[in-house]
Amino acid sequence: MSHRLWAVMASLVLAPSLFAQEPTGGQEQKERSPEEERAVALGVVQVTAQRRKEDVQRIPLAVTALTEIDFENRQIRRLDDLQAQVPNIIIQPNTGTTTGAKIFLRGVGADDSLFTNDPAVAIYIDDVYIPRQTGALFALYDLERIEVLRGPQGTLYGRNATGGAIRFVTRKPGGPETLVVDGLVGNFGRADARLSWSKDLSENWFLQFATLTRNRDGYMRDVSFNRKVNDEEVHAARVSVLGRLDERTTVTISADMVRERSGPAYPTGVIRSPIPRPPGPGGQPRPPRPVNDPDRNYYTLETDLAAGKNDLDQAGLSVVAETVFSPELEWRNILAWRSLDNLLFGDFDGTAQRRLHIFQDQSQYQWSYESQLNGSGERINWVLGLFRFVESNEQPTRQDVFVTGPTNLIAQDTSAWALFGQATWQATERLSLTGGLRQSYEHKKLFIDSVRPNGTPNFQVNRDRKWWHLSWRAAADYRFTDEIFGYASAATGFKSGGFNGRGTAPNLVTTVDEEEVLSYEVGLKSVLLDGRLRLNLNYYRNRYDDLQLTAINEQGLFVLINAADTRIQGYELEFSALPLDNLRLYGMLGTIDAKYVRFSEVNRPIFEGRKLKQAPELTYSLGFDLSYPLGAGQISLSAQHQFTDEHYHNVANSEIIKSRPFRLTNARLAYESADRRWAVALVGRNLTDTEYFTGAFDIDGLDIANAYMNVPRQYGVEFKYFFW
Length: 724
Description:
By secondary structure, this protein is mainly β. It has four helices and 43 strands. A hairpin with a 7-residue loop joins strand 4 (89-93) and strand 5. The chain is globular, with a radius of gyration of 26 Å.
């Protein structure tokens, strides 16, 4: 694979004739001025991945940056739509929810939404940290761009970023005054609408307001109650006000809210023929696992739960102050509050009996503060920062395994802080060196009060642990030419330890150790052929100590454990090209080679010989955007094809619920008026109507083998109108 990837890169670099502009239709092509040549080139994408504005092609990080035009052409309307855009990423709805986010990046992530299990891929909205998977599958609106930082981000982002980080950068107040509405109607009762409004309140104060609604009927049929399930209903809004306090200081106040009233996600049975079981104790024969998909249709299901719940309410408020003391020194402060409430009651067994129901009523509150001091000199850029985070969670939780189970009131308080710094020194005209440190501290307190169904006490647990960690990063980058940029880096990351909050007895409420990673990466970034070809390739190698994973035991109970040490390596490639002025090609490829290593005697039977879950060995996508004048306006066609290799959904590597390789194709045909006031488009997703699992359970002891299904073929009409 490595030889093939390097050969692909070399062929593209050494074959400029592929992108030469030939005269067409027997007409001579007019010679362009340098300004016209730059206008049709791919352009420069500015990111703030290193806490300052920089060209994404000139930073020693693997970063995928997507802008507003990408969101439109590639139909990126929700966080999980990034799966076709970013190498080696898996984003799916979390088990039993519609807007909980299960994110795995380079084979590392989390798939249990309980707050005692922290994610490994950090999410930020305008530098405000989002700590919970619940509600994190955000619908996208009013964004300037998304930045996906691949690999451990232990220095500048630090907290729970051992897999990577995803940054949402919203549109800021102070731009052109606009009012725009767009929407989508389609099959499955799809009805979406978004509005964005920018307004100058005065000479120094500016407003940005946006809102959306997403609605879709269920796409699976519950034969037990003759109804459609797995519907979607989400409403959200955001308002920001920016004020210029003086010539040096601006302040931005933002508030947002999300209200979801979707139903819970119901799974479907996946066993279509009896499956033999291995002999029991003493060689006693065991009956085969029974069929639970008799009609051989993944989009029908059985359940005994007539009234599930998946209600979500979350809100946030942030204040960002920026002071520019001089062109060389800037101070930025981010103060934020957020809250979340989620009532979930779902059937997780996929049968018409009560084998596994889960109830939880989460209430979460957080506040955070981050201070960043950015400076630059003749040959150095640097940032110093302070991060403070406080979070409180509590929820009654109940797992009904055949009968009503005890109710556990689970509460956890988290206090974290960090000091960090990073500097880049331009050693020579072409060579730069980067170094960074982050000192992190985490303190978690867990309390569980368990009560039996008859109201009598069951057990109580108190846990109190602290963790310290010093992360570092070292990188070197070299400009071989003005077009080709290379880098090499070594970095560490840290994810604090925690507790198995779903434990059903004091001895099962275990403590897991912190997760640590040592990462190496080398890469090349290139912008060739007068800006018409952007080609990036990198190799990564990560070594995780005490990787944290969620598993399900034979009794259907979730457990949080430290895996054996893990080695993960692979290649990633991204490209974007303009072979013609009106044709853009783009694509990505990612590989993952993951192995468990250095087993303990306890872990050996669990992990030896098995593969990481949610870690497909190969993913890739190819797409194009083509536009052409038509009448008084312009017609455009965009399409993208995506491949995801087979991968497992559980630690046990169950073949019954393994995702087979699948391919998806999306397309969009649009017409835009000459004055760009309005546009209409025909859109289609999953045009080949491919079926695949987005999540799954296999619990032999409970006779459960079920999966959550993707949405089938979707099609509809988009519209957009600019009032001004």
